[in-house]
Amino acid sequence: MTNTAKTLAAVLIAAMAAVAGAGAAIAHGDSEADGPRAETAGLFVGGKNRGHGARGGMMREIMSQIDADDSRSISQAEVDDFRAAKVRGADASGDGNLSLDEFEALFAEMNRGRMVDVFQHLDDDGDGLITAKEMDDRFGGIVARMDRDGDGELSLEDRRGRGRGHGHDH
Q: Is residue 132 part of a domain?
């Protein structure tokens, strides 16, 4: 395997892991009994679990795509074949490398499921449209819910102590 191929394999695996981690981070959060849930990644707040589910769903989906023999585990050969097929499909120039534009298309393809999940979370009534009201319902008051230090603003300090509950009691 060439250095370029090894690098592309590493980048694709890292991107898949990052996507799976982002999915878990987005899905992570403590929720109040029937109140809104502030998602710490800031992509959406509240919503229903209509998609891949929390933690590991995206990684399971990707692994099932790589697992050519349905063994529920993946070999290096399966990773290499998956990577090679994805690169061939995205390599519009045919040079064996991925430009930023080519990688963007591949990344968007691999993240479409997560994007649909986020869209569905924002589309509260399931009508296929995200209305201004649905956005306001999700993001209205987000600063108050995520402001851990009580200063009325979000900053890096508010990320510290993640997982200890959302919002600040006033």
A: yes
Q: Is 79 a domain residue?
A: yes
Q: Are 22 and 41 in contact (CB under 8 A)?
A: yes
49-105 pLDDT per residue, tens: 344 444 466 678 788 889 999 998 999 999 999 999 999 999 999 999 999 999 999
170 in a structural domain? no
Give dist(CA 99, CA 97) in Å, integer.
7
DSSP the chain: --HHHHHHHHHHHHHHHHHHHHHHHHH-----SSS--B-TTSS-BS----SS-SSSHHHHHHHHHH-TT--SS--HHHHHHHHHHHHHHH-TT-SSS--HHHHHHHHHHHHHHHHHHHHHHH-TT-SS---HHHHHHHHTTHHHHH-SSSSSS--HHHHTTTTS-SS---
**Tally of domains within the chain:** 1
Question: What are the structure tokens assigned to 19, written together?
Answer: 């996507």
Q: Are 55 and 28 in contact (CB under 8 A)?
A: yes
Is residue 131 included in any domain, yes or no? yes
